[in-house]
Amino acid sequence: MPRKKKNDIVPSYDKLLMPTLKALKELGGSGSIEEINEQVYEIIELSEDILQMPHDDNGVQTEIEYRLAWARTYLKKYGLINNSSRGIWAIIDAEIDIKNLTSNEIVRAVRASSKKKLSENKPLKDHKKVENEIEEDLEEEIEWKEELLDVLQNIDPSAFERLCQRLLRESGFTQVEVTGKVGDGGIDGKGIVRISGFLSFHVIFQCKRYKGSITSSQIRDFRGAMQGRADKGLFITTGVFTRDAIKEATRDGAPPIDLIEGELLCEKLKEFGLGVKTELIEKITITEDWFKKI
């Protein structure tokens, strides 16, 4: 769909600032990106077609997810929310009254602050430079995930199964086996996850190298194959899940299936250092006042 059409239909990031804060409030002050986004979707009541619009052809994010990332960045720069290393976002001051805030105020303050910081290196003419800085940060986050997903989608299927096996082991699963039998309903392996050293659950997983969307019918097929063989199901893909698939995975009265889509898969591989290296660049700052006081 042309960019112009998306701009006309999908709410701009500044229109998502207040709904994001409201969503966090309704979640008790904190939540994962997925929880926050789902809460925002309920608040602004967008159609399924709009929620499924891709940001670009690579399909790492939908357009609404991309703009919500912008909204969280502005709220963080304004000092209203922060995020932990485990990807949980939280309101800094639980007593904050959203009614006393406006999106215009937040955007204006963030632009002014960013301009001041950036102007120390080079002069800035308008707020577009500030927006470009934020966009570059977000695009950089997307780019490494796109590169990683491209690698994953081109490795041998058995290698991807072994990677998923390793990831589950790193995540605390035990007795993880890759079965991958033909005609086994898409079941690729099984394992046991133990909680707090007491409770244990038998989990059957399917891992699918996929660039497109996993549909609700594929979730139903997987559930049918796991019926009576495990406590839970886990579906891992390099692609994405349609919203109907997400609803099917958590449908009341049916065995639960946890979903790991491409973006979350990238985050987990990064977290455990599996084929992803995080390099920190050393920044040296001279504290001139320190020398004056010596």
Provide a descriptive summary of the structure in words.
With 294 residues, this protein is an alpha/beta fold. It has twelve helices and ten strands. It has helices spanning 3-9, 17-26, 33-44, 48-51, 63-78, 103-118, 127-152, 157-170, 216-226, 243-249, 262-271, 288-292, and strands at residues 30-32, 81-83, 88-91, 173-178, 189-195, 199-208, 213-214, 232-237, 240-241, 257-260. The protein has a five-stranded mixed beta sheet with strand order 4-5-6-8-10, sandwiched between helices. The chain has a three-stranded antiparallel beta sheet with strand order 1-3-2. β5 (189-195) and β6 form a beta hairpin. It is globular.
What are its keywords?
single chain; 294 residues; five-stranded mixed beta sheet; three-stranded antiparallel beta sheet; 12 helices
In short:
This protein is α/β, with parallel strands linked by helices and 294 residues long.
Order of helices and strands: HHEHHHEEHHHEEEEHEEHEHH
What about the largest sheet? 5 strands, mixed
- Number of distinct helices: 12
Helix content: 40-55%
Q: What best-fitting shape do the alpha-carbon axes yield?
A: globular
- Poorly predicted regions: none
Integer-rounded radius of gyration: 22 Å
Largest sheet: spatial strand order: 4-5-6-8-10
The number of E-state strands comes to 10
Strand content: 15-25%
Task: State the end-to-end CA separation.
Answer: 63 Å
Topology (SSEs and partners):
Layout: H1 3-9, H2 17-26, E1 30-32, H3 33-44, H4 48-51, H5 63-78, E2 81-83, E3 88-91, H6 103-118, H7 127-152, H8 157-170, E4 173-178, E5 189-195, E6 199-208, E7 213-214, H9 216-226, E8 232-237, E9 240-241, H10 243-249, E10 257-260, H11 262-271, H12 288-292
Parallel strand pairs: 6-8, 7-9, 8-10
Antiparallel strand pairs: 1-3, 2-3, 4-5, 5-6
